[in-house]
Amino acid sequence: MLKRNAPVLTARFEAMRDDPTDVAHYRQLGGYEGLASVIDMGREQALDELDAAALLGRGGAAYPAGRKWRHLYNAAGETKYIVCNGDEGEPGTFKDKALVESDPLAVIEGMTIAGYEFKAQQGYIYIRGEYRHLRAIFNQALENARAAGLLGDHILGMADFNYDIRVISGAGAYVCGESSALLNSIEGKTGRPRVKPPHLADVGLYLKPTLVNNVESYASIPVIMREGGQAFRHLGTPGGGGTKLICLTGHVKNRGLYEVDLGTPLEDILYSEKFGGGSSTGRPLKFIHFGGQSGSIGAADQLHDCLYSYEDLKTRGLAIGSGAIVAMDDSVGIVDYLTSVANFFAHESCGKCTPCRIGTLRILELLEKFQQKAGVPGDLAVFENMVTHVTQLSACGLGQSVGKPMLSGYELFPEEFKQAINWQTVERKEVAW
Amino acid sequence: MTTEEKIAIIDRYHSNPEQILNILVDIQFQSEAGYIDQQTAQLVAEKLDISETRVYEIVSFYAILKETPQARYVLKICDSSPCHFSGEPVVSQWLQEKLGVGENQMTQDGLFMYHGIPCVGACAQTPFVKIKGEVFPHLTPEKLEKLLADLKAGYYPELVGGESHVEA
């Protein structure tokens, strides 16, 4: 039974602290019941459960997992690949790290269920280079699962269930979190995104149909299959089921990892002692950056009645994204903050497409100029245009997301931008384009 | 690091080109100078049956892989916004002052260098530095002073090569 406001994905963390790779202990705590349920209910029913669960992709894009799985299920081809995206790169996010470190077998079970569902033989987990030390834990968990007959040939004694998982290390490229870039990286290439369509469920790893899901999404799969889709959905809201791992950082007292039911009041998350505990600096919180650098910014004083759910955030132009919640107090100027964000994008742009490669740099230069209060009349229009163009013209999610923090921050605190302009100077008139 | 040791790593990954990142990262972490030298790039290219250009394409694309010798202790500072506005400048300014070198420059004794990197997922422990896989959290100038003294005295042998997490 799933209870509200109780840990689901983190439920085993404490109990398995001594050895999170221990398969027997994992099974005592409900482990591998999800896989057994899927084998019992059959593949079609498993897809229905996933739809009923309303699991939205936990990497950040919130794509319905049920739809993604059904697409792959119907994709033509014998060989299909299962890929787990553990390239957690959104600053302010460390929840996939926690799952891989503290309950790796849940991720493995989720990936194994996918292997069964799609009759795949090979799965890959891509673990970002900065988490290199976690490879040992994950490899040990894989080894223990193999020894227990839960990976490798004839899983659970079934003649046609042959599936294994390989670990690939990332090496410091945020863009590899983009799913097609991730596949290129697994193939041993530079991790630059591919042109889409085709969808990866049709043409993915080694040009074969491929499932790419986030670590937290895979860890949710065994729960959904064990407890049923409806039960999982009821933990959340109609717009998105389950619990969500969140990472509180910045100027809150209790920074760290928490698991919350989707639909928990944001005020509770920020201010209750159980979670954030309010401001750590004695100054009021000014704005909250949701979901990573690629997410939008909300003003703290406009979010009093906001629920932390997919739909409520969406109506406010915000999103859950990766689960990062970065709180900043009123000492932080929006121009300074966005300069830091722009610096990140300019650094991480892979260089494949021009709008992102050049545009992110131009945005950074403009913001640095604003920091020096050296803007001239007309610069704000140039800034808006530049951000809009990068957002609309970039080829992948990296460049397309730049507008979210930039424009939301600009719209919330226009006065701070205006103060960055020397209004006595000659206006810069941009040529229309 | 001997050629045999490098070949042993490549062999553990079955000379599979798909494993090039694992191979390069493992070799670099175990190498004395912390980078992929040309001899290594040639060796990897040869063993994986790909061109040396391909190896350098990989090395130059991925931020963790280095083309030039690194200090014995590379202190990595997260400069992403959650950390940057939660005390990170204390660390970078202190290091610049005490080490007397700019970002990415080695101290004369070859012991230290520091540079900013994007998020390492230790955002709740800021301000910190990361050396190899180890995060040193909640730093103050006093703690930094002690950390550098400890490193000079050789208290953290695991941070100088040696660690290995290689799969079967």
From TrEMBL, chain A:
Keywords linked to the UniProt accession: 4Fe-4S, Iron, Iron-sulfur, Metal-binding
Gene3D superfamilies: 3.10.20.600, NADH-ubiquinone oxidoreductase 51kDa subunit (3.40.50.11540), NADH-ubiquinone oxidoreductase 51kDa subunit, iron-sulphur binding domain (1.20.1440.230)
GO molecular function, one term: 4 iron, 4 sulfur cluster binding
SUPFAM superfamilies, per the entry: Nqo1 FMN-binding domain-like, Nqo1 middle domain-like, Nqo1C-terminal domain-like
Domain of life, per lineage: Bacteria
Stretches assigned to the NADH-ubiquinone oxidoreductase 51kDa subunit iron-sulphur binding domain: 335-380
Family: Belongs to the complex I 51 kDa subunit family.
Protein's recorded name: NAD-dependent formate dehydrogenase, beta subunit
Organism for this UniProt entry: Agrilactobacillus composti DSM 18527 = JCM 14202
Automatic annotation (TrEMBL), chain B:
Cofactor note: Binds 1 [2Fe-2S] cluster.
SUPFAM superfamilies, A to Z: Thioredoxin-like
Entry keyword annotation includes Protein biosynthesis: no
Iron listed as a keyword: yes
Annotated TM spans: none
Any one GO MF annotation of this record: 2 iron, 2 sulfur cluster binding
Cofactor(s), by name: [2Fe-2S] cluster
Pfam families from the UniProt entry: 2Fe-2S_thioredx
Keyword set, alphabetical order: 2Fe-2S, Iron, Iron-sulfur, Metal-binding
Binding annotation for [2Fe-2S] cluster: C78, C83, C119, C123
Family to which this protein belongs: Belongs to the complex I 24 kDa subunit family.
PANTHER family in the record: NADH DEHYDROGENASE [UBIQUINONE] FLAVOPROTEIN 2, MITOCHONDRIAL (PTHR10371:SF3), NADH DEHYDROGENASE UBIQUINONE FLAVOPROTEIN 2, MITOCHONDRIAL (PTHR10371)
The protein, known as: Putative NAD-dependent formate dehydrogenase, gamma subunit
